[in-house]
Amino acid sequence: MKAYFLRRLLLIPLTLLGITALVFAINRMAPGGPVERSIAALMGGDGGKRSRMESGPTITASQVLDVEEKKNREKSLGRAYGEWLGIFPRDTQKIGREFPKGATEVEIPIPGTIHLVKAIRQGDRAELKAEAGVDISEWAVRLRSPAEQVRHWNKWMGGMSLQSEPEYRAVLYKPAFDGLLQGSLGASEKYQDPVGLMILERMPVSLYFGLASVLVIYGVCVPLGILKAIKHRTFLDNASSAAIFAGFAIPGYALGSLLVVVLGAKWGWFPIRGFTGDDFDTLSAADKVKDIFNHTFMPLVCYLIGSFAFMTMLAKNNLMDNLAADYVRTAAAKGVSYPAAVFRHALRNSIIPIATTFGDNIALLVAGSMLVEKVFDIDGFGLLQFSAVVERDEPVMLGVLFVAAALTALGKVISDLCVALVDPRVSYK
């Protein structure tokens, strides 16, 4: 069994590599990215391409390359993904300048300082020269040829001709290994904050909803499913089934919208947004607990509405199948009481399918529900995913994807372990 779980754990990095590489490639190749939006803004909006072609482009090839560099889109797909992984050094800071026409030198300001550095072109290479006392040991320079700039122009401005031939361009950059292998998820393109810190700041909110959901699902749904199996076809079973399936038919975000309008805005029973109130820091411990409950009651109902029905019926149906099995009838024929037949014989086998879903709930602890958090304006992990997708913030998208995928893969291994602990027939040899 140890060898099996060791193999499963060793497969997790390969799984994460495939998932992140696929999403990275799709995000880079999808139209409407940050480069297109920035170029459209430089050209005066998003008007039709035909009108721009008739009047001629209003930007130069150097400006297009400058946009690419600012959005970290100037490198090949494989190189960019390698930098995100930390296999290759990435440009932690960079700034580019075009050489004056016919010149072989250009001055470039060093980011974060008041100093200038001079880039001197020698053929297809360039070297840096700084004033005395200015340390440029961490900086490097790369040269962009006119032909290379034309290729980048055609990539983003296909069908439009250049008004003038571009000059050489020098890019001053500071390289460093700063990727996943170094424990870094990069920085948000929109907010410039470290992605890892953005995720950690939202963990308490997601952990609260995740733990509360898991406790309710297993603390209420499993006993209710057992009770429904024992009381099959009674009023209790029929009434609870009607309520459960009515809730299951309503999407969580749709129920959230209804609760916000009725219980929040119309009746004023609960706050309609946020995880805590504006005066949370000034409240006593008891009032803080009350404030969190008031703010999270409606979102928690929306979190549970779908999983509640699934887990309850799973527990009921599995227990009913085992109660109808031959070994239970044999135990009853030998004089075993009905409660003993249920709880000592049938229940343990009924827990096996439930154990297979336990690991899947690990991801629920932080993944949250992006639509529910959007409805209630709760700044958790789910809303962070939603915002990253809408804003096409690549580092944040990959960061939350990596965390969610890692927890899901780990949850699958935990599910197998739970099954092995519950079912003695499983050995995984």
Automatic annotation (TrEMBL):
**Lineage: superkingdom:** Bacteria
- Give a yes or no for keyword DNA-binding in this entry: no
Q: Name one Pfam family in it.
A: BPD_transp_1
Positions of the ABC transmembrane type-1 domain: 203-419
Cell compartments where the protein resides = Cell membrane
> Which key words are in the record?
Cell membrane, Membrane, Transmembrane, Transmembrane helix, Transport
Q: PROSITE patterns from the xrefs?
A: ABC_TM1
Q: How does it sit in the membrane?
A: Multi-pass membrane protein
- Stretches that traverse the bilayer: 207-230, 242-265, 297-315, 396-422
Does the record bear Transport in its keywords? Answer: yes
Family label = Belongs to the binding-protein-dependent transport system permease family.
Protein name (record):
ABC transporter permease subunit
Q: Which organism is it from?
A: Luteolibacter rhizosphaerae
The beginning of the lineage is: Bacteria, Pseudomonadati, Verrucomicrobiota, Verrucomicrobiia, Verrucomicrobiales
